[in-house]
Fold this protein.
Amino acid sequence: MADPHWTSYVGMATGIIGAITGISGAVIGVISYRKSNEIKSLDLRIELKRAISSFKSDLDKANELLPYANNSRFRVASAIGNLHSGAMVKWKENIETDTASLKTISDDFSRLNTSFDNFTATQLENELTTIHDLQVRLDELTEKYNKELEADDKERDRIRDRHERPPQ
């Protein structure tokens, strides 16, 4: 019987060490993958909660902005004698449409699920996308009425200038 050469023992030892290293590397890889998914989900939850908080604040401001802008427009139109003009009829139609849009946005928001503890990363991403879409719609509406208020302020300045200027 032939004596095994020392290189076969070295080969066998390195093979065993390699197998153990490979298995432990795979186990550590799976654990790290799960941990990174947990962290990703946590980050998405935090971002979603921030987005919801910001949206709630913006929604409350928009609910106050539309009636304020409507009253402002009526006051300015009354001051310049355009209260019963076609522009005011169009304004009333727009304010009714936009108030309904705001109600729809609010209803869509109230239908969102507010318990995100058991959501997967994909579900959290979907909810985040939904809240972002609502935020975009709300921002468009808010921007429109902020511009209308700026126009009312400019008209008020013109009215004030006409009254302060001495007659010639």
User: Anything to note?
Assistant: The two ends are 130 Å apart (CA to CA). The chain has one domain: 45-164. The mean pLDDT is 89. Residues 45-164 form one domain.
